[in-house]
TrEMBL record:
<keyword id="KW-1133">Transmembrane helix</keyword>
<dbReference type="InterPro" id="IPR003097">
    <property type="entry name" value="CysJ-like_FAD-binding"/>
</dbReference>
<dbReference type="GO" id="GO:0010181">
    <property type="term" value="F:FMN binding"/>
</dbReference>
<dbReference type="Pfam" id="PF00175">
    <property type="entry name" value="NAD_binding_1"/>
</dbReference>
<feature type="domain" description="FAD-binding FR-type">
    <location>
        <begin position="282"/>
        <end position="523"/>
    </location>
</feature>
<dbReference type="Pfam" id="PF00258">
    <property type="entry name" value="Flavodoxin_1"/>
</dbReference>
<dbReference type="InterPro" id="IPR001094">
    <property type="entry name" value="Flavdoxin-like"/>
</dbReference>
<dbReference type="GO" id="GO:0005829">
    <property type="term" value="C:cytosol"/>
</dbReference>
<feature type="compositionally biased region" description="Polar residues">
    <location>
        <begin position="10"/>
        <end position="21"/>
    </location>
</feature>
<feature type="transmembrane region" description="Helical">
    <location>
        <begin position="25"/>
        <end position="46"/>
    </location>
</feature>
<dbReference type="InterPro" id="IPR008254">
    <property type="entry name" value="Flavodoxin/NO_synth"/>
</dbReference>
<dbReference type="InterPro" id="IPR001709">
    <property type="entry name" value="Flavoprot_Pyr_Nucl_cyt_Rdtase"/>
</dbReference>
<dbReference type="GO" id="GO:0009725">
    <property type="term" value="P:response to hormone"/>
</dbReference>
<keyword id="KW-0812">Transmembrane</keyword>
<dbReference type="InterPro" id="IPR039261">
    <property type="entry name" value="FNR_nucleotide-bd"/>
</dbReference>
<keyword id="KW-0288">FMN</keyword>
<feature type="region of interest" description="Disordered">
    <location>
        <begin position="1"/>
        <end position="21"/>
    </location>
</feature>
Amino acid sequence: LTIMEDASMDPTTSPPDNTAQQDSLVSMTDVFLISLIVGLFTYWFFFRKKKEEVPDLPKMQSVAAPVRDSSFIEKMKKTGRNIVVFYGSQTGTAEEFANRLSKDAHRYGLRGMAADPEEYDLSDLSRLSEIDKSLAVFCMATYGEGDPTDNAQDFYDWLQEADTDLSGLRFAVFGLGNKTYEHFNAMGKYVDKRLEELGAQRIFELGLGDDDGNLEEDFITWREQFWPAVCEHFGVEATGEESSIRQYELVVHTDVNMNKVYTGEMGRLKSYENQKPPFDAKNPFLAQVMQNRKLNEGGERHLMHLELDISNSKIRYESGDHVAVYPANDSSLVNQIGEILSTDLDTIMSLNNLDEESNKKHPFPCPTSYRTALTYYLDITNPPRTNVLYELAQYATDAGEQERLRKMASSAAEGKALYLSWVVEARRNILAILQDMPSLRPPVDHLCELLPRLQARYYSIASSSKVHPNAIHICAVTVEYETKTGRLNKGVATNWLKNKVPDENGSNSMVPMYVRKSQFRLPFKPSTPVIMIGPGTGIAPFIGFIQERGWLKQQGKEVGETVLYYGCRHEREDYLYREELARFHREGVLTQLNVAFSRDQAEKVYVQHLLKKNKENIWKLVNEGNAHIYVCGDARNMARDVQNTFYEIVAEFGNMSQPQAVDYVKKLMTKGRYSLDVWS
């Protein structure tokens, strides 16, 4: 190209010279073309050589662990199982129920396995009929507002899209929910209905457990009717009484490299010393507490504001998300258990699954010490479930105590009543039971096998990432109460957080945490009005919302009305974030600040009373302004009362009947204009 340009640019070149230039051009073009061909051939040759080496790659791929495990069907065939119990579990209860059902199977000459749907391809359900006397059971918890649990999300998505023929599948579902929530047991109901739609055969009715009542009793009642239905369907009989079968064997390590011992990590060994993103439930980030201040000025309760440093973690969050923290049990409770069981808590041990084919090799990270297990991995503060009492009964040397434990673990009405009064209502944890039954002294390793895992605690984030990109704020109240036995019970996480006071070296103020995404979101358009209702610590996500609306205003965005309904007991005692809210109101970020002080006058005043007082304005914002409504806090009373108030307002100003008003509010929920972030 350069030669052509040079030639065309020279006006004085004579014809003979031009011919010579053309000859030169041809030869150079030939050289260029030949070079290009040789280059292409060389490239192809080496590319072809690489292609010839590809046969080695499948070997490499087969060694690398796939995202999902091998087919659960193949695993069941290999290990002689015919019942698979899948669990959708957020706090561990559904997993616990699934394990109990899978263990039950041996009493009927069947073999069961509990399975995490996240680890398998559930489209294999269509092949379950290849196994004789096969059955799939689903223990499905509902999380939040009718959502699947994290580990059941893929299964839920598959069910929604699947058009598989499941006509050979036999199934049963037990749902775990809470009646104080709007979408009670939504996941259990959906799985039960959808499997039937896909042609599967239900062999026993859907069970609906209610955690607001007595979830354990609901499960036992369903289970004692479920197994006879299984026996009838398959023509089998119970082979004997329920028996105690250890799932794990104890290995004590006398000579162990302490660098190989878990000291509280949730997943990877030494993950707290060598932090690597991304951070999640199995790999939490160790955040330092930058601030921990008491929010209330008086009263018996301790309400607190904490700020966690997430700098350099690459953690991102949105207003309305939840932060999960992994707490630790009170060391005095752990020490008392060690003393009662005459145990050296610093013994290094492992509990190894006797079922070598199981995906779950240990009940918690091993090897570790009993002290670490009882501090970081096991729930020692909640009343134990009946299956734990049944297994422990064999270790009571006093006949009366043994009989009492067995009775509470039975399905007899008298036994259920005794369990309800003596364990649940008296809030007896494992330490209290050991104290009140002097002859009950189980081996500490069996106790560690039986106790459920200590779960992460979730808090609504009280900050906006637009304003605080490197920090997550928490608003919480310490839980502390006296039981019917006169004992003082303390909430694990809130009392642990209370003691997380920032210090210079930071060693005492580290909190293992991760962020869980939420559907509780500000409107896409900043100009959309918002009505926020959050008494007590329900104010938390709204502090983040208000911060964000203020930030948007500073950016020059048009921000709609921002209305808050907040409530507390006394103005001078527990008015949380009083100064911050007053400032937001002064600056016009918060267009309305309505506060109900429930106990500052003879007649109690709650947020729903203030909503009724301002009902005309509420209706105008909702009907004309397309406002979004947000409710955060107590599900059992407040959220329900607020919802009923909205029914009344809609009926009155929308000229609707009660059923029409209810339908109107339900449609707001469906459209994402009425959102709940509640707990019971």
